[in-house]
Amino acid sequence: MSSEQLKFRIGDPVWAKMKGFSPWPGVVVLPPSEVKRPAIKKAMHCVNFFGTKDYAWIEETSMKGYEEYKDTLTKDKKSKAMAQAIAEIEKYLVDRELPGQSTGGSPRKLDQDDESEFDALLSGSGDKSTKKSKKEVGRKRNASEGSGSTASGPATSSSTAKKPRQGRQPKESKAGSASAMKMDEERDASPVQYSKKPSVSNLLDRPNALSARPSSPTVGMDLVTSSQTLREKDIQASKLNFGFLGLGIMGSGMVKNLLNSGHNVTVWNRTTEKVKDFVEAGAKEALTPSDVIAECDITFSCVSDPQSAKELVFGNCGVLQEINTTKGYVEMTSVDSDTSQDIAEAISLKGGRYLEAQIQGSKSQAQDGTLVVLVAGDRSLFDDCQSCFQAMGKNSFYLGEVGNASKMNLVLQSMIGVTLAGLAEGMALADRAGLQQKDVLEVLELTGLNCPALLQKGKAIIEGGFPTHQPLQHMQKDLKLSLNMGDQLEQPLPLTASANEVYKHAKRLGYGEHDVSAVYIRARF
Q1: How far apart are alpha carbons 71 and 46 in whole angstroms?
Q2: Long-range contact pairs involving 26-33 (C-beta distance under 8 Å, separation at least 24)
Q3: What are residue 410's phi and psi, to 5 degrees?
Q4: Cα–Cα distance between 511 and 516 in angstroms, integer?
Q5: Which of 188, 437, 443, 484 is deepest in the core (most CB within 10 A)?
Q6: pLDDT tens-digit profile of 273-296?
Q7: Contact by Cβ (8 Å): 12, 152
Q8: 205: alpha, beta or left, given left = phi > 0 and alpha = psi -120 to 50?
Q9: What is the pLDDT of residue 119?
Q10: What's the CA gap between 74 and 82, in Å, rounded?
Q11: What is the C-alpha end-to-end distance of the chain, expressed in Å?
């Protein structure tokens, strides 16, 4: 398909509709390298949505000119997010300067099949006639789309191109050959990455949207002001020096409460940008994990996964380099019992004390100091950390030998993961059945299933923003560790296995760094 046949061009403001979502204002752009084009034989454009800053590949049949349909699609009551998106696109229309080009607000008129297809998408329903028209349009376009590419991306993969019969020369003029060579040169120079294989993510026939979220979990966090819960605890801070490795979404909240309760804390993080705010709040900065160990009596670690936890301990300039008989190490990363025991053995061989302290809770609970801490390992180290656990959580449980806390945590995470997957499926079913999801939550609140976690995730599903309180990829990691533990114990876990696949698919669709409630995106289709 040549660029002249496209209804939209780079820079055109549009209304674009993804499956399961209302039409949203955006602009046609060149796709970033990480946003791969679906292997669909239809004209598509990469759209950058205003307000959310998301990117997605959208079929032309699911797009309308912004100016032409502005009044129609904004006449209903607008949400705050929609109002912000409209304000941004209006500013874009005022600011942009494209000499000699039209604004793209009035692309060429859609044919009758395209009109009915977009109307069906707007209403959220489609009938057999719409599906039939799609197939007919697809047959008509195959001939023209089979070998072309556009500024928005390749129209099809090379594997679908027909090969000439053996023994015959393909019917191709010199001009055609020169055009093909020019197209190859343009591909090499283009920032768009072309893939020879169809993307696996397109099994759902859904554009791959990668939503951006703040790079630092400390954004918007007041590190100086203590929470009401922390002030009510009246903690007597230990005089020992404490270290903390990892200022992620959970670690940042825990360090905040340690500082506000009067503890002396030295911090380290892989990305030094996050350290600056904590230094201003009273923490000391160390250059490497081994420097933290050398400076402190007891060091806590809270990173993303078992592999990262091992790298901190056994890696270059790691924890083991400075561990001795006067040091204590507390592993708060969500790990399996085997990883925890490996770390415990290495720490003990150098004379150090070791605890595993698994945490139950989310970002907001970490900031408020209301986590539940599950502890196992050296009892004397547990006693020395009491003031810290008081600052971090509302309760701490000592469970005996190393490995017990890890196992308990994975059991709880398995229960939570399966429950939230069930909530997402139920909300998707309610929406498909024409029920109001708000009504479902109100009824749920009156039943025995009423609990803060389900209600909070239910509201996130309705709002559709999925602000990160507990990353989806961390939940999927914990479910995988639970399945591994089940394999070792020969315990069947069919529900956990099914839930793991749902989370894994949501992660594959680009929602790994969003909140765990984003599993609804996968349940919807």
Answers
A1: 24
A2: 26/50, 26/89, 27/89, 27/92, 28/104, 28/152, 29/55, 30/151, 30/152, 30/190, 30/191, 30/192, 31/55, 31/57, 31/152, 31/153, 31/192, 33/191, 33/192, 33/193
A3: -70, -35
A4: 9
A5: 437
A6: 889 999 999 999 999 999 999 999
A7: no
A8: left
A9: 56
A10: 9
A11: 30
Q: What pLDDT, on a 0 to 100 scale, did the predictor assign at position 78?
A: 66
3-class SS letters over 401-459: CCCHHHHHHHHHHHHHHHHHHHHHHHHHHHHHCCCCHHHHHHHHHCCCCCCHHHHHHHH
246 is written with which tokens? Answer: 């990892």
Q: Please name the amino acid found at residue 377.
A: G
60 and 6 Cβ atoms separated by less than 8 Å: yes
Residue 148 pLDDT grade (very low, low, confident, very high; cuts 50, 70, 90)? very low
Contact between 473 and 251 under an 8 Å Cβ cutoff? The reply is no
Residue written as token pair 């010199």: 174
Is the pTM higher than 0.85? The answer reads: no
Contact 368, 227 (CB under 8 A): yes
Quickly list H helices, 32-79. Answer: 66-74
| DSSP letter (8 states) at residue 227 | P
Closest listed residue to residue 352, CA positions, set 325, 381, 379:
325
Amino acid in the structure at residue 214? P
**Residue holding tokens 């209006």?**
90
Which is more confidently placed, 213 or 339? 339
Residue 24 buriedness (CB in 10 A; 0-12 / 13-18 / 19+): buried
